[in-house]
Design brief:
CATH class of the largest domain in chain B: Alpha Beta
CATH topology of the largest domain in chain B: Rossmann fold
Strand order of the largest sheet of chain B: 14-13-12-15-16
Shape of chain A: globular
Number of strands of chain A: 13
Helix content of chain B: 25-40%
Distance between the termini of chain A: 21 Å
Largest interface: A-B, 52 and 57 residues
Strand content of chain A: 15-25%
Oligomer: heterodimer
Shape of chain B: globular
Largest sheet of chain B: 5 strands, antiparallel
Strand content of chain B: 25-35%
CATH architecture of the largest domain in chain B: 3-Layer(aba) Sandwich
Distance between the termini of chain B: 6 Å
Helix content of chain A: 25-40%
Number of helices of chain B: 9
Number of helices of chain A: 6
Chain lengths: ~240, ~300
């Protein structure tokens, strides 16, 4: 079984689950986290878990791969919860997912960190620093916060050229050198899925930013993720 | 050398570290969150990290900062921000200032006590517990569940059980009691964490670099932090060397130059670890024990600044 952890309103994730029907792909949303059946155990010997996926309780061992499409469960996901309790319930659900996803031995893309269900949860500036550290040319990011009500400035908001990394593969209409750089950054960050944005498509293009979300509506990316699962866990 | 202190200036741990730095004659700048609506920031990140914080007429060159002690308060709880409401410009301004300083503290080459990303592990207690057990500590048997039948079975197996939040929100320990049975089915709505109650004596261990300050806590309450403080006894104690070293390794592995580690020693001399607090309110323990934790943090910030070549 493949599990896609997604927002309950994510239509792309829904379509992906349908595309992967033959692989028994199922969506796990916030609804499942308020459904009877979760059991995540920890003791001094081992962790044993049962999860609720698409309304059904399953043993974690049945899962062969997980794709995570949300950084956290947010208050917006919990319309049925009393408004005052939404921040707390959202935090509790996210905390369980971090622990549970971290305990799985099957491929989980990306593996969660305490900062994000989708991976390192870095600020754009952290991606830039990580890129600089491995020798990738970057375009500076500026932030400016003023008292006079002027909207905060975050520089670099323009059309970029996206290169998507899926494991060892990359996708994007850009010079192969940028593909190599995107993979280099993904490796440095310890992630399998990453979208890297460059200022243009030429070989010397500077990196503008990067993000953990990838466009799962693109068939070639969906297929590459499936292939990535087939390779099994990274050693 | 310049040490930046960020938080609410009058809050005890921040004020104590500030005073200890003053005592050492180290230049400091305080960015008080209560001044957030009078604060402006410029930040530029490229090959290097540059920036400036301005609070009214005062300027802090972020490039000159060699060490930073963070105790950021939830900015939305400050009256000036809370009164503005989530849709107001003041709320958005406060969010942007917070975001900018958190971002800077994540990437600055200065020593940061502690960096935001390393503080996050406490946001999922079962995740952190799994890390803790890898360092040789015992951990309480734990169940996070949405199933009341699982809770009943767990309770039956362990006789005495406590419950507490899975995340860092509303983090308070309570004992599961028969009167809770009526509400047990509510766990289906929200994952809830239960743990076997461990009999023993509480210890709070503050790790500051490679220094350890331990104290023993005696209290009748399930969570001494919320008990009548006249019934809580806190006393400085030495830890067995092996436990002390384990605490240092655990804090280092979590990337925390300063950590508050909650331990319990059983009558059989087993050491359980419940959690690692990445932003410990050490002043509470310091007042009772006289342990110079503020001075140790100040010295750590100075040493870190020197390591950075300043």
């Amino acid at each position: 079984m493949l599990v896609i952890v997604a927002s309950r309103t994510d239509s792309h994730a829904q379509l992906l689950a349908e595309r992967w029907t033959t692989r028994d792909a199922r969506l796990l949303t916030s609804r499942d986290l308020s459904t009877k059946g979760w059991s995540h155990r920890l003791d001094n010997g081992s962790a044993a878990t049962a999860a609720v996926v698409n309304g059904c309780t399953i043993a974690s061992e049945q899962i062969t791969g997980v794709l995570t499409c949300v950084p956290a469960i947010t208050e917006d996901e919990l319309p049925n919860v009393v408004a005052d309790d939404r921040p707390f319930v959202a935090a509790e659900m996210t905390a369980l997912l971090i622990a549970w996803l971290s305990s799985l031995t099957c491929p989980v893309v990306n593996r969660p960190t305490p900062a994000s269900l989708m991976g390192p949860g870095w600020y754009p500036e952290q991606w830039l620093r990580a890129a600089s550290d491995v020798g990738i040319p970057t375009c500076p990011i500026r932030r400016r916060v003023r008292r006079n009500g002027e909207e905060p400035l975050a520089s670099g908001q323009r059309d970029f050229v996206a290169v998507t990394v899926v494991g060892d593969a990359y996708f994007g209409d850009a010079d192969p050198k940028l593909g190599d750089r995107a993979r280099q950054l993904a490796k440095a960050a310890g992630v399998d899925l990453l979208t890297v944005h460059f200022l243009d498509r030429g070989p010397d293009a500077r990196l503008a930013t990067a993000e953990l979300a990838v466009d799962i509506s693109r068939p070639e990316i969906a297929d590459a993720i499936l292939e990535h699962f087939a390779r099994g866990p990274r050693c | 050398m310049l040490i930046l202190l960020w938080g609410v200036a009058s809050e005890e741990p921040l004020a104590a570290v500030g005073a200890a730095l003053d005592h050492l004659g180290v230049p400091t700048q305080v960015v008080d969150q209560r001044d957030v609506l009078d604060t402006e920031i410029d930040l530029e990140v490229g090959e290097t990290v540059h920036g400036e914080v301005r609070v009214r007429d005062r300027r802090v060159d972020l490039s000159a900062v060699t060490g930073c002690y963070l105790r950021p308060y939830d900015i939305h709880h400050l009256p000036a921000v809370a009164d503005a409401g989530p849709d107001g410009p003041s709320w958005r301004h406060a969010d942007a200032i917070d975001e900018c300083l958190l971002c800077w503290s994540a990437i600055t080459p200065a020593l940061v006590v502690n960096r935001p990303q390393t503080m996050a592990s406490n946001g999922s207690k079962p995740y952190q517990l799994d890390l803790i057990r890898r360092f040789g500590f015992q951990i309480p048997q734990t169940l996070v569940t949405t199933c009341s039948a699982e809770v009943r079975a767990f309770w039956q197996r362990h006789d005495t059980v406590i419950y507490k939040s899975v995340s860092g929100v509303r983090s308070r320990v309570s004992r599961l009691r028969p009167e809770h049975l009526d509400r047990l089915d509510h766990v289906a709505s929200c994952p809830t964490q239960f743990q076997k109650y461990i009999v023993g004596t509480d210890y709070r261990v503050h790790v500051v670099g490679d220094e350890v300050f331990a104290c023993e806590i005696r209290a009748e309450a399930d969570d001494y932090r919320y008990a009548d403080q006249s019934s809580v006894m806190i006393e400085a104690k030495e830890l067995p060397l092996v436990v002390e070293e384990r605490c240092i390794r655990l804090a280092q592995a979590l990337g925390l130059p300063v950590a508050g580690i909650d331990l319990r020693r059983t009558p059989h001399d087993d050491w359980y670890c419940f959690e690692v607090n990445p932003s410990p309110a050490f002043s509470y323990y310091q007042q009772e024990t006289g342990q110079p934790i503020d001075g140790a943090i100040a010295s750590l910030l100075v040493a870190g600044s020197r390591t950075n070549g300043q």
